[in-house]
Amino acid sequence: MLIQFKLSIRKASKDNLLAIKANYQPIELTISFKKTITDEKRIKSFLEQSLKNHLVQQSYFSRSPHIYETYGAPLSYTLQKQNGGYQASVYTWGIPRHPAQLYESLSYFLLFVILFLWWYKKGQTITPGRIFGVLILAAACIRFFCEFYKENQVEFEDTMWLNIGQLLSLPWAIVGLFFILRPKPKAVQKIQHSPTAG
Asked: What is the DSSP letter of 155?
C-alpha cells in the first residue's frame, strides 16, 4: 500500500466539535491500494476496522499523538476506483506542532550575526573571553526556552518540571556568566634589564 498525506478543508460535524475547540487541523489521508487488491469489501473492512483502530490508538494511547480520531464515531472516508486500483480518502484531524527546531536554528543564526557585528565593530576593546561567555550564555538560554516547545524525548520527562535539555542548559549558563563577569586580566608589564657594569 502506498499512503500519501495531504491537507484538505472540510465541513465540521457534531462529532468533530471537540477537535475544532482544540484547534486541530483537518487533514485528508490518501491511501492508494495496489491494483492487485480488487476486493472492495476487504478494503472497506481494512479502513473501518484496522485503520480506524490504529488512528484511535494513536489518538488516545500514544505518548505524543499527531492525529486525533474520535473514538466511537465511524471513520469518515470515501473510496473510489482510479486507474484500475482503489483509492481511499480518509478525513481526520491533525494535531499542530510548533516547529521548535526552526525557532532554535533561527535564534542561533541571529546570535551569530549579533556576535559577529559586535566583534567587527569593537573587537579590539572587548575583554578576552567576553564574546565566548555571551555565546555560551545566550545559547543556553535559547535552548532552555525552545525546549518548552519541543516534544519530550523520553517518557519519564513527562512528569518533570524541567526536561533534560533544560537541566543540561543550566550549567552552561553558569559557565557563560563566569566568562562574562570575570575581571579583566591585568596588563603584563615588560621589565627591561639594563646591563650592569661589573
From this structure: G
Cell of 63: 505518548
Q: Which of 148, 118, 145 is nearest to 133 (CA)?
A: 118
Per-residue pLDDT of the chain (198 residues; tens, 9 = 90+): 444 444 444 444 555 556 565 678 888 888 888 888 888 888 888 888 888 888 888 777 666 677 888 788 888 888 888 888 888 898 888 888 889 999 999 999 999 999 999 999 998 888 888 999 999 999 999 999 999 888 777 777 778 888 888 999 999 999 999 999 988 777 666 677 666 655
Cα separation, 110 vs 190, in Å, equals 41
Distances (CA, A) of 43 to 36, 79, 80, 153: 12, 9, 11, 36
CA 96 vs CA 27, 64, 88, 142: distances in Å: 11, 11, 23, 22
Using CA atoms, how far apart are residues 131 and 176, in angstroms rounded to an integer?
9
3-class SS of residue 53: helix
Distance from C-alpha of 77 to C-alpha of 27, rounded to nearest angstrom: 11
Phi, then psi, of 12 in degrees rounded to 5: -85, 140
Can you name the residues that pair with 28 across neighbouring β-strands? 6, 91
Give the angle subtended at the CA of 102 by the CAs of 9 and 96, to the nearest 5°: 30
